[in-house]
Amino acid sequence: MELIQLRLLGFPEFRLNGRPIELALRKAAALVIYLAEAGGPVARDVAATLLWPEADAEAARARLRRTLYKIRIAFGEEVISASAASLVVRAPLSVEADASAFEHACNAGLLDDAAGLYTSDYLAGFSLPDCPEFEEWVFFRREALRSRLVQALERLVEAKIAGGEPRDAVLHATRLAALDPLSESAHRHLIRAHLAAGDRAAAERQGETCTRLLRDELGVAPDPATLALL
Predict the structure, then answer these.
(1) Burial category of 12 from C-beta neighbours within 10 Å (exposed 0-12, middle 13-18, buried 19 and up)
(2) Max alpha carbon distance in the chain (Å)?
(3) pLDDT at residue 1 tops 80
(4) Which residues make Cβ contacts (< 8 Å) with residue 223, sequence separation at least 6?
(5) Torsion angle of alpha carbons 61, 64, 69, 75, nearest 10°?
(6) What kind of fold does domain 164-230 have according to CATH?
(7) Gap between the Cα atoms of 44 and 41, Å rounded
């Protein structure tokens, strides 16, 4: 079975049957990503409007045709089936994306695997400033995946503490707090992890960090539940 592999957690990378594919044109990369993530046919007009919103319909369709040609040249074969009305990843090509693998790991409760798969934010460093609808789609996809990561890390911290692995809990809680430095809940997870590891000094330092950030950035004091931990 032929396989397209996509690295989407971080700057995008593409492989066809293990062979690296260079898509120098960002809109070509964006089109492959969008179709792979769609999991089914996408109307040609939708794709054209998404990537060339400033162009009239005829010009956008022409640019789409040229982009499809560049994709075929880059991959060395037809990877997108194009009809008069729609586009879809060509059957029987199989698509494997790290973002989907991360979601599947979360759904299966394989939290260590999920945390390991999430190496960076979705399409980090990749943007199309002249395509606001594409940018909006990426933003919501990125935020949804970050939210799944936060949930996975919270569960991992609790599981590692309960399982007698406090140092692993500290590692996951540190990552959790770095994701959102203004999340008091994340700071509480890290404080609890430090306490479980027997490092009260680190827990107190984290409490001070939490207090300072909340005061300086939000103008509020910590919740009594946070202070009660110390």
Answers:
(1) buried
(2) 67
(3) no
(4) 184
(5) -160
(6) 1.25.40
(7) 9
- Claim: this prediction has a pTM higher than 0.90: yes
Architecture of domain 1-149 in CATH? Orthogonal Bundle (1.10)
Residue spans in the chain of domains classed CATH 1.10.10.10: 1-149
Per-residue pLDDT of 123-133, as tens digits, reads 999 999 999 99
Which one-letter amino acid corresponds to residue 145?
L
Q: How is residue 202 written in tokens?
A: 């680190």
Length of the chain: 230
Distance CA 227, CA 204 (A): 10
Residue with tokens 């994306």: 97
When pLDDT is cut at 50, 70 and 90, the band that residue 91 belongs to is: confident
Helix (H, G, I), strand (E, B) or coil at 96: strand
Encoded tokens for 223: 């919740």
The crossing angle, in degrees rounded to 10, of helices 200-213 and 184-196 is 170
From-to residues of CATH 1.25.40.10 in the chain: 164-230
Token pair belonging to 81? 């089936």
Distance, in Å, from the CA atom of 110 to the CA atom of 124, rounded to the nearest integer, reads 24
CB atoms within 10 A of CB 2: 12
Strands 3-7 and 94-97: parallel
What is the rounded CA–CA span in Å between residue 92 and residue 3? 9
For residue 107, what are its two tokens? Answer: 């759904």
